[in-house]
Amino acid sequence: MTLWNNDTEIQFFTEALKNFASPEQLFYNLQGGYFAYVPKGSDAEGQTLQSRNSLIGQFTEKWSKTLFEPIAKELGLHAVNSVVCDELGLSRQSSADLAFCTTNNTVQKPENIKLLFEIKMSVVSNYKFTHPNNVEYVGDYKQHKGNPSLLRSDSMLKAIGKSINIRVSGIASTKIPMVVLGNSPITDSYIKKVDFLKTSGVIQGFWSLNPNPTNSDYVKNTPKLGFQTILDREQLFNNCKELVTNDMNYFSSMISKLKLGEIIRIASQENTDIAKAEKFLTLIRS
Question: With 0-12 CB in 10 A as exposed, 13-18 as middle and 19+ as buried, what is 204?
Fold first, then answer.
């Protein structure tokens, strides 16, 4: 199993060009040539490149499914793209990018979904295209003006917003872990935020599938592992296994200490730890 790297990005460009995408759809046409991103110190010459977004989105969803399929199979599950589940607010217009499910269907029931992935991946490094079909690496993400993947604040906010929308869709979402997949580090400003999202149970993690995004310093992991850089298959498998095998429950509330104490007192009267937990969850959601 190979994680995301520069060869993967060159593969994306090569396949897109073969499938009749024009260089202008994939690269900035600058005075110095065709570049995936505007190099630092250069001018964008008034260009904004939007046409690549849907192409890289389709590529990363398929690539992620291929990566996770053997892991899902080992866990007795299926890796499914574009999962729709009305009970979770996942419509055809806003489906889950990837999910581990007990059946290999696009339309799913909540109880069949064991793990949800939101994919926020893009071209990370910079590349230069020369006719007829040569694509070469020219520098990592610190050497161009773009903000790829999880380095984009709007990508982070969209992923968080979609996860919260699923969480507030109803009780059906409370047993389904959610992970945001990227292929870049995060910015320093999101370190505390991703850790809080993990410890509060909203999102179970932000994972970068790119173990070597740059040779210089970057955020590899946050203190509470709200963000992790995945280094190998074993780490990825163990992370997935932990999420699908642990009987986790999401709960949230904003109530008085008096009410919370009453709930804890009533729940503590049950005979076993599991029964106490079930009673607590029932009371806090009532």
Answer: buried
Q: What is the mean pLDDT of residues 31-45?
A: 88
Distance CA 199, CA 181 (A): 18
Separation CA 97–CA 167 (nearest Å): 16
pLDDT of 127: 97
Quick check: helix, strand or coil at residue 100? Answer: strand
Tokens, residue 28: 């900035």
pTM for the whole structure = 0.92
For residue 131, the model assigns a pLDDT of: 87
User: Is-contact 85 110, C-beta < 8 A?
Assistant: yes
Listed in sequence order, the residues at least 6 apart from 273 whose beta carbon sits closer than 8 Å to its beta carbon are: none
Are the C-beta atoms of residues 194 and 227 closer than 8 Å to each other? yes
Q: In this structure, are residues 206 and 150 in contact, taking their beta carbons and an 8 Å threshold?
A: yes
Query: In angstroms, how far is the first alpha carbon of the chain from the final one?
Result: 46
103-120 per-residue burial string, b: 16 or more CB within 10 A, e: under 16: eeebebebebbbbbbbbb
Q: Examine the pLDDT at 165 and tell me if it is beyond 80.
A: yes
Hey, where are the domains in the chain?
6-80+119-245, 253-286
* Each residue's pLDDT tens digit, 42-53: 887 777 788 889
β-pairing, 126-130 vs 178-182, is unpaired
**CA distances (Å), 220 to each of 149, 157, 232, in order?**
15, 20, 14
Peptide bond into 223 cis (omega under 30): no
Please report, for residues 24, 138, 147, 148, 149, the alpha-carbon distance to residue 38 in angstroms, rounded to integers and kept in the order given: 13, 11, 11, 12, 16
Please give the structure tokens belonging to residue 253: 């509330």
Give me the half-sphere count of Cα atoms (radius 13 Å) on the Cβ side of residue 180: 31
Mean pLDDT, the chain, whole residue set? 93
